[in-house]
């Protein structure tokens, strides 16, 4: 049984001081139900996740205690991707006909505050100043720039594109385009990455209604079909965050393994993708993920960015809503925002940021701690 | 450094004239690990032996910590006295790359591939006034 996405709902990312994370999740769920022309009583199952805003299944206190199967998902930055993966399996197997996928979060300002013990590390690692995700991102792109000839100008181009696309996206947190000079002169955070090259922890909620493909038109006239949903974790040798040491041989990242599996399962290749969301925790991530997901060779990003090939009108538009850079990252919801933006583009509802020529096949990629990656391929 | 001790036991040989990083080597597949591991991440084996990982290597990648981290960072510094520090991975003779603070803290001082050596630094003092030590790496050759 094929799987369709028939409802999209979002509580805009950013800061909503008057609402808890849970309330933002409920708002997103209600919006998705309305978009699908249905109600919560119709939902047979739900998969939901939140890193810092409590148990996702507490949503039933706001949406109704209907007795549905509600499973909490906690899988780091891939929480949204893992929730959708679980919903995909639930429908694919024939177990259920229609259900809800939801993610939300409300993070404090500033960087995340990880504790060594939660990561199987001793206290010295954090106390001596090695436990910052920003350091890892800086070091990974530093080595990549050295190995593959990526220039600082290319980092700037990715940031410039993100905020320009954010300025075209009514739901984006950062809706002001930034000039080259503003980005270039921003305070350095972790060499070579400065303030405007990183996304920020944020707040927000995102929800999808997922159903059997053969009943999709009962809910929405323009369903988007989920061709495949894949999640992979790290192999030995993959260069990941919070690693006191790395093995001699650098192995493929979980992005590479998830991407290859997704293309194989969906029966399409990178050349078939019309619009993509690639995890852009920082600008280097978007650059590296272009190649790790198979869209170009390592090093080709220099020319791709110079030629505008990932712009909205380019060969492969990437992060058309401004990505994590312009939307921030509420961890539980972020992977679902990516899927939602691809659905908006495939429906043709992108407005000022709509990819031209009626895109047919889209791609989403989430990546994050502790070395986990989720890829979805979608088609209309 | 008589009134000094490691912040965390077992990361490096101490006391020693030239402290050396201490890790483990898998007796089944030969892979090294740091810090010491009771099981091998490469082959899942459990036959691990202590290994002297040395105190020299080359710089594999780097960044600079330009602002004072929040907890779990724990030193005697204040935001006013905080000094930026480098962070990098040092490729050791056995091939393992170990993450470390770096003495160098400006981009001009750091180049991928440069020879590095280990030294001891004080993280903070404990309640008795004893210096708590950890390792960091610095340029092995005088810089011009």
Brief characterization of the structure:
The complex is a heterodimer of chains A (380) and B (144). With 380 residues, chain A is α/β, with parallel strands linked by helices.
Structural notes for this entry:
The complex is a heterodimer of chains A (380) and B (144). Helix content of chain A is 33%, strand content 20%. Chain A is an alpha/beta fold and 380 residues long. Chain A has one domain: Peroxisomal Thiolase, Chain A, domain 1, CATH 3.40.47. Chain A has a 9-stranded mixed β-sheet with strand order 3-2-4-7-1-8-12-11-10. In chain A, helix 3 packs across helix 12. Chain A is globular, with a radius of gyration of 19 Å. The two termini of chain B are 29 Å apart. In chain B, strands 5-6-7-9-8 form a 5-stranded mixed β-barrel. Chain B has a 3-stranded antiparallel β-sheet with strand order 3-2-4, with no helix packed on it. Chain B is an all-beta fold. Chain B has strands spanning 4-6, 21-26, 32-33, 48-54, 56-65, 85-92, 97-102, 115-125, 131-139. Chain B is globular. In chain B, 0% of the residues lie in helices and 43% in strands. The model of chain B has no long low-confidence stretch (mean pLDDT 95). Chain B has a domain at 55-139: OB fold (Dihydrolipoamide Acetyltransferase, E2P). Chain A binds chain B through residues 110-111, 113-116, 122-124, 126-132, 135, 138-140, 142-143, 146, 187-192, 236, 243-249, and chain B through 7-8, 11, 23, 31-35, 41-42, 60-67, 69-75, 85, 87-89, 94-99, 101, 107, 112, 123, 134. Strand 9 of chain A pairs antiparallel with strand 7 of chain B, so a sheet runs across the interface.
């Amino acid at each position: 049984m094929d799987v369709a996405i028939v409802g999209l709902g979002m509580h805009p990312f950013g800061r909503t001081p008057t609402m808890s994370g849970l309330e933002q999740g409920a708002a997103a769920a209600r919006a998705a139900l309305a978009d699908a022309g249905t109600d919560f009583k119709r939902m047979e199952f739900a998969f939901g996740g939140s890193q810092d805003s409590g148990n996702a299944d507490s949503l039933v206190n706001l949406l109704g205690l209907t007795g549905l199967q509600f499973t909490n998902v906690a899988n780091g930055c891939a929480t949204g991707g893992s929730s959708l993966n679980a919903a995909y399996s639930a429908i694919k197997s024939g177990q259920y006909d229609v259900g809800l996928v939801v993610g939300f979060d409300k993070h404090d300002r500033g960087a995340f505050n990880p504790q060594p013990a939660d990561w199987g590390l001793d206290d010295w690692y954090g106390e001596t100043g090695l436990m910052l995700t920003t350091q890892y991102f800086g070091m990974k792109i530093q080595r990549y720039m050295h190995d593959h000839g990526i220039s600082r100008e290319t980092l700037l181009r990715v940031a410039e594109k993100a905020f320009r696309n954010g300025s075209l996206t009514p739901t984006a947190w950062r809706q002001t385009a930034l000039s080259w000079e503003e980005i270039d002169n921003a305070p350095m955070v972790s060499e070579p990455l400065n303030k405007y090259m990183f996304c920020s922890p944020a707040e927000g909620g995102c929800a999808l209604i997922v159903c059997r493909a053969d009943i999709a038109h009962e809910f929405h006239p323009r369903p988007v079909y989920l061709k495949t949903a894949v999640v992979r974790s790290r192999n030995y040798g993959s260069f990941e965050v919070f690693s006191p040491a790395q093995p001699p041989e650098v192995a493929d990242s979980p992005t590479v393994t998830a991407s290859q599996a997704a293309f194989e399962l969906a029966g399409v290749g990178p050349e078939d993708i019309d619009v993509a969301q690639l995890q852009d925790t920082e600008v280097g991530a978007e650059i590296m993920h272009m190649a790790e997901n198979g869209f170009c060779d390592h090093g080709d990003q220099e020319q791709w960015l110079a030629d505008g090939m990932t712009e909205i009108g380019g060969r492969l538009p990437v992060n058309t809503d401004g990505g994590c850079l312009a939307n921030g990252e509420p961890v539980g919801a972020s992977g679902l925002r990516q899927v939602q933006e691809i659905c908006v583009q495939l429906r043709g509802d992108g407005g000022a940021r709509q990819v031209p020529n009626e895109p047919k096949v889209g791609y989403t990629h989430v990546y994050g701690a502790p070395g986990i990656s989720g890829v979805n391929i979608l088609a209309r | 450094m008589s009134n000094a001790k490691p912040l965390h036991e077992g990361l490096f040989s101490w006391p020693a004239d030239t402290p050396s990083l201490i890790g483990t080597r898998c007796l089944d597949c030969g892979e090294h690990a740091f810090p010491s591991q009771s099981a091998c991440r490469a082959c899942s084996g459990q036959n691990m032996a202590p290994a002297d990982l040395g105190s020299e290597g080359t710089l594999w990648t780097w960044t600079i910590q330009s602002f004072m981290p929040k907890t779990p960072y724990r030193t005697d510094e204040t935001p006013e006295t905080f000094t930026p520090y480098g962070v990098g991975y040092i490729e050791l003779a056995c091939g393992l790359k170990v993450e470390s603070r770096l003495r160098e803290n400006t981009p001009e001082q750091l180049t991928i591939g440069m020879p590095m050596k280990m030294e001891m630094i004080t993280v903070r003092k404990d309640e008795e006034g004893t210096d708590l030590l950890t390792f960091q790496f610095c340029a092995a050759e005088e810089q011009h």
